[in-house]
Design brief:
By secondary structure, the chain is an alpha/beta fold. Helix content is 45%, strand content 13%. The structure holds iron/sulfur cluster.
Length: 520
Amino acid sequence: MEGSGRRQKPLRDVFEEISAGKTAASDEAVAAATRLCQDLAHYAGRAAELTTAALLYEFLERSKLLERYLDPDSALVEEQARNVAKFLRLVQSAGRALATDRASFFVPHLELLREAGDDPVAADFETSRDQVNVLSIHKAKGLEFPVVFLVHATDERIPGQARLDAFRLPDALARVPVPDRDRHIAEERRLAYVAITRAQNTFYFANAIDYGFQRPSRPSRFIGEALGREPSRMSGPLRVFEELQRFQRPPADADAPLPALGADDVLTISYDAIDDYQRCALLYRFKHVLQIPVLPTPQMTYGLALHEAVRDYLRRKRDGEKPTLADLQAVFRAAWLAEGFINPAHESERFQAGLDALRRFHEQERALPPPELVEQRFSFMLGSDRVVGRWDRVDRADDGAVVVDYKAGADEEGSGRAQRAANESLQLRLYALAHERVYGERPVRTVLHFLESGERGSVAPSEDSIGAVRALVSATAGRIRSRDFLPNPKSLRTCQQCPYHQICPSSLTARSATATAVAG
Ligand code: SF4
């Protein structure tokens, strides 16, 4: 900078020199530099007294920026205000995680976030009623616009081709699953469904037959899946070609991953599948037929890490080892994934809850003999339905076999909820039936063990309860075989807890969005 005298000088020193009239800067520049130096001195003093968020807020107020954001006079200012609001939220949540919530600690934290690839200041776009928004499908929220067009919805584009690496890491070494064709299609399907849910009223798939390539383009397979039928196709410049195409084999059904099943075909079904179908038939279709992936939730991360630790502990105990609490918690730490948590404080609270749950589990285990079976898979036939699953634990008690299923979820200690949950548990009844079918021995007890509270609920399977679950499995399998996938959520709560509620056009939590196909 002119007048700075030497290179490599802190910018603040330069402004102080300008402010002190030691340079040839204009009066205007001197006044601006003076204001800046006074502000810096003021905020340096306040930074020691205020939290980072309070300091930032004071800056917004003193600089009159807040006033401007209150009544933005342009889209640019509105966007700036949103960015600042997002930044303030980040400052606030970081403050809860930092040892000392002051700006001098926050700034290095922000640098770390940047280095980790986070972009803390970029706000999501906002919708506008007065303009057409052109967006990619990758960053969608629900119900953003009255009308949405998904253009170029061809099979060549959505799902398109998976780009597979020429040199792949061995699966065992990869931190995340190596992409393959099936995963690529599943992910593209999820994106297409998310795009649909942007529409408040009407959604259009738009595609052309001729994009100037040698071959005509086909409508995206997701159109047929969303509509439940293949879209009608209009004639285009390739009329002759299309005439010839009439002789090709008819396209496969939209639900190709689940072929139509005859009475003699085997349907494989698990407790999860039955439970999902009982909650809502459409949820079953999303998860088990279309296999639309979902992002991990904090409950999933927490539950998986707890289960992994308990499984490792029980296996070692079964094999005659005496694993310590430190061993148990080390597996939990290694299995922990910092994904999906609201903020660092939330993650740390859940992590601590997991460590406490394992401490309680370790205490309880001292009095128990080693398990007979750990994470044992089972499979048996019920008519032409194959029922599969896995027992977390089977013990051999004096009076017979005891099947135990671990639940990670929180349960109030002493509330008796564990016993109520066990009394109502379809899973326990199914696992008792499985034990009877696989080993010819009905368990004397089936137990739900809530890891967070340590509470257990126990039921003795009876002829009636096992008969009832057998009938329920067969009835559910029959409806799945007949492809009865119409949405039938039990209640609003079912939709609220459904991992697909943001993309589901039938969700009770959203207004319905209609899907319409257009060929152009
Ligand atoms: S959001 Fe509701 S209606 Fe849609 S799949 Fe889920 S439970 Fe069923």
